[in-house]
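Chapter summary example.
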Amino acid sequence: MDIRDRIKMIRMGERGFTLFEVVVGMALIAVAVLGLAQLFALCVAQNMRADRMANATFLAQQQIDSLRDLTASELSALGVSPIDEQLDVNYDNTYDFRRITLVQFDDVPSVGSVWKLKVMVFSPEQFNVNVNQLLADPVGHKVKAFITTMISR
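The structure predicted for these 153 residues follows.
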């Protein structure tokens, strides 16, 4: 076999991609990467939302637990007006949540003295909204956590 024949065989086996094939391949890879990027962004947003809801639920439950330790006279004193707090969870001097606690006294003959508790936790977007508006329509103001319970003494 002659050297020219050998070079000819090598050239025939080493054909490259055309410009069109390269462009189509890059376009397919770009579509796949963009789809994955959108999925990643959606996952990050959902994770942040779940984290905020978990923190809000913890703050509501924490308030209920602290109110369970109060005496009957202390609970009655809290029933005058709603407790409205702005909370800085991570101590970065930025308020992260707004917690509103409503304590209502009710005398049930078969049970005795009962206090109905409502604890609502809102995101910072609701800081400038009137308390009465939040109490009237918590779902419309996108409440993050809403826990109701009763304490009897």
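To summarize the output: The radius of gyration is 31 Å.
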